[in-house]
Design goal:
Pathway: Glycolipid biosynthesis; glycosylphosphatidylinositol-anchor biosynthesis. This protein has 775 residues and is mainly α. Helices cover 59% and strands 1% of the residues. It has 4 domains: 127 residues, Orthogonal Bundle (Transferase(Phosphotransferase), domain 1); 116 residues, no CATH class; 82 residues; 312 residues, no CATH class. It is built from 30 helices and 2 strands.
């Protein structure tokens, strides 16, 4: 077949349904194009769920091809008229290509792939290498990871093989549709753990020693005797795990006084084994299966009981550790205020230390006697040391703290204001489960924080209020991951231009290279989005330009000689906003630009306000950071990313590079928010350490909520998601601190203690610096 030149071969070598048109018309020289046509037929069959071209004769096969692709001609297939069998057929003159209506359920990239496979001329038909470069293999499939159509995850159990029963119990009478055309089939839901004993029984093997599933009844096409034996083996495997855990529990010194799982005793296990032997002798296999199901359920309950024996005390211990840490942070913030708590701690310091020390000694003796594992012992002892630190009076450890040199105005926030902020923080916890709730949290906090700062019926007030209402609508839109809209992307580009050139002072401060580079990259973004949406390959020079701009966006800011914070902020907003647009697929750029504009307006309105609160500013940082993730829909990128964000940078699927671009897309809005807050708030520049201590306190409050929401049962997705929520909240402060220092480098901020006004040129001294230094 691969000889050069090709040798004559019979045209009947390929199955009729997958036979290329040149073979149907008598061509005897075969090339790889024949295989590519067959591959196109198979791909279409997989997409449709049925044969694409099921002709019952060569004439019928040709008619079906022409009905799908249109009639061939000499213009699109040079040499078509010279094929041996052309004169033997009267071909229909159907002129239209019907691939699009036939495959309406797939995206444009999938239809483009089919089009290059179903080319009449074998010389121009796509090769395997060209197919692998198709965007169909880069674009996310509809319903990726089972998130879309249920047809991707519902597999009829009857398709598993001969060992599966065709008549399976379905008490609820539930059904599902295996494809859009039906028919309805019974829906049998199995727990993930049940697949292990079921597959083991179908293969004739015992379940693995660490199996936690129970064999479902009625799913195997076997005799009752075999099913009873399989259930009994499954029960013995679970009982062995239960007995091993029970023995481990009884090794400790206090085993006699500790609670046990008394439902399944040694006598009950022996009684079950004897009963199964008697029932098998009497051939009462249905009763054997029922007894095995009951004992397996009890064994699983016992295994869970001993696995989670210390669950409640560990949760209590961890909660106590959290509360001790939060109490220490609160005392650190309120250290400049004499209170009854401080006086009591000062007087009772020795009693506190003796009490905690003696408790630790007693607990260590008990843990060693019981033989408690080291990891559990560590978490049980941890709260004592945290509370020992938290209850120490300031005359012992305060003056060694670097934060002791500052006066913190945290207590200017009243109790009801603290309660309101905590309520907003609790509401933000639920936004991890219902994204739209963050719109309510943002709207409430924005009105509470900024409403009184504006003059009534002023232009700034109505502009700010309109922005708050518009921004509150964005969480109602679909997640940006997997969603593409060229019109919204174009609107984002327009907003970036408008925001960059609206203020004349900022417009005049841009260097020519900044204006031209940002303008060209925004136009290139629109061009790349247009080419990608129409299935046209993006030229390599455009991709190289995107990579060069990625480097330019940051280096031009760092190398800029502009010293005014407001002008450096304008350049940061223009550069990073343009960079962010290259990674957007829909409304993200619009949202981030409007969010920074709203934050600018509200901070300018607060600049004349005498009352300041580090707690309120800390919550502002946290709320706007999460709002930039949830409102833009980027929060979904943490678990699954959209390869389309790299369309301006890559022509193929490179997961590690795409993940790096995803991180850039997640962090750029946070950098913009930090820059706006730092440049517009003198109070933040003076009290950044205390603000981040408050931020840590708020994050710990939210983290404590997620601690109680961590799951250890259910699907792996639910368990992993609950753990990731807790981890995200615990690392949020560290990540924001790193971003904050990055922002200071971009703004080129000089530490206050290093400023020497005598050495500064007069043009570098502006009122912000003078007032901050004076303060």
């Amino acid at each position: 077949m691969f000889s050069n030149p090709p040798k004559p071969m019979t045209p009947q070598m390929v199955t009729l349904w997958y036979r290329a048109p040149e073979l149907l018309l008598g061509c005897r020289t075969h090339t790889t194009a024949v295989d590519m046509w067959a591959f196109g037929c198979i791909l279409g069959e997989l997409l449709l769920g049925k044969p694409l071209l099921p002709g019952n004769s060569e004439i019928a096969q040709l008619d079906m091809i022409i009905d799908l692709l249109g009639a061939p001609s000499e213009s699109i297939w040079p040499g078509f008229a010279d094929l041996p069998a052309v004169q033997n057929f009267t071909l229909s003159q159907q002129p239209y290509n019907n691939l699009t209506p036939k495959f309406h359920m797939i995206g444009q990239s999938g239809r483009n792939l089919l089009n290059i496979l179903f080319i009449y001329n074998p010389k121009t038909r796509a090769t395997a290498e060209e197919c692998l470069k198709s965007k169909y293999f880069v674009d996310p499939p509809q319903g990726a990871h089972g998130a879309g159509s249920p047809h991707e995850t519902d597999t009829p159990f009857v398709l598993w093989g001969a060992g599966a029963s065709r008549v399976v119990p379905n008490p609820g009478g539930r059904t599902f549709m295996p494809n859009n055309e039906g028919p309805a089939m019974p829906l049998h839901e199995l727990e993930q753990a049940q697949l292990t004993p079921l597959m083991s029984a179908l293969l004739g093997l015992a379940p693995p020693m660490n199996n936690f599933g129970t064999l479902p009844v009625g799913y195997m096409n076997v005799s009752k005797e075999y099913e009873a034996m399989a259930a009994h083996v499954n029960a013995l495997q679970l009982l062995e795990q239960y007995v091993a855990l029970q023995k481990e529990h009884k090794k400790g010194f206090f085993a006699d006084i500790l609670l046990e799982y008394d439902v399944l005793s040694a006598e009950a296990i022996k009684r079950y084994k004897d009963t199964i032997v008697q029932l098998q002798k009497k051939r009462e296999y249905s009763l054997c299966i029922g007894k095995s199901q009951v004992i397996m359920s009890q064994a699983l309950e016992g295994i869970d009981y001993y696995h989670g024996y210390y669950r409640r005390v560990l949760l209590l211990s961890t909660t106590s550790t959290f509360l001790g840490w939060m109490f220490y942070i609160y005392r650190l913030l309120s250290r400049n205020r004499a209170s009854k708590v401080e006086l009591v701690l000062e007087r009772r310091n020795k009693i506190v230390r003796v009490s905690i020390g003696s408790s630790v000694i007693v607990l260590v003796i008990c843990l060693l006697s019981q033989g408690t594992p080291l990891d559990i012992s560590f978490y049980l002892l941890l709260p004592y040391f945290v509370w020992l630190k938290a209850l120490q009076p300031w005359n012992i450890n305060f003056y060694s703290s670097p934060a002791s040199a500052y006066s913190v105005p945290a207590l200017q926030t009243s109790m009801w204001q603290i309660m309101l902020l905590i309520a907003c923080a609790e509401l933000m916890v639920f936004t991890f489960f219902e994204r739209r709730l963050i719109a309510l949290s943002f709207c409430v906090f924005a009105c509470y924080n900024s409403w009184e700062n504006f003059q009534s019926k002023s232009r700034d007030f109505f502009s700010w209020l309109a922005l708050v209402l518009i921004l509150s609508c964005f969480p109602l839109l679909p997640l940006s991951v997997g969603y593409q809209n060229g019109y919204l992307l174009g609107a984002g580009v327009i907003v970036i231009f408008t925001n960059a050139f609206w203020i004349s002072k900022s417009r005049l401060s841009y260097r020519n290279h900044t204006t031209y580079c940002n303008g060209l990259i925004l136009l290139q973004t629109i061009l790349c989005a247009y080419l990608h949406s129409n299935g046209i390959n993006i030229p390599i020079p455009l991709k190289l330009a995107s990579w060069f701009y990625l480097v330019y966006a940051f280096t031009s800011i760092l190398l800029s000689k502009e010293s005014r914070l407001d002008l450096r902020l304008a350049q940061i907003g223009f550069n990073l906003g343009s960079l962010y647009a290259t990674l957007c697929t829909s409304y993200e750029a619009v949202f981030v630009q409007l969010l920074t504009i709203e934050l600018n307006i509200s901070l300018r309105a607060q600049s004349a306000r005498a009352e300041r609160s580090v707690l309120r500013l800390a919550f502002t940082l946290l709320l706007y950071t999460f709002f930039s993730l949830f409102g833009s829909g980027n929060i979904a990128s943490i678990s699954s990313f959209d390869p389309n964000i790299a369309r301006c940078y890559l022509s193929h699927f490179a997961p590690f590079v795409i993940m790096g671009l995803v991180l850039v897309k997640l962090l750029v809005p946070v950098v913009l928010i930090m820059s706006v807050i730092y440049a517009n708030s003198e109070f933040v520049r003076q009290h950044e350490e205390q603000i981040f201590i408050c931020l840590l306190l708020v994050c710990d409050v939210m983290g404590l909520n997620f601690l109680f929401l961590v799951r250890n049962q259910g699907s792996w997705l639910d368990i992993g998601t609950s753990i990731s929520h807790f981890v995200i909240m615990e690392v949020t402060t560290l990540v924001m601190l790193l971003i904050f220092h990055t922002t200071k480098q971009l703004l080129r901020v000089i530490p206050w203690e290093e400023i020497d006004f005598k050495m500064l040129p007069l043009r570098l001294i502006h009122w912000d610096v003078i007032s901050a230094k004076h303060h």
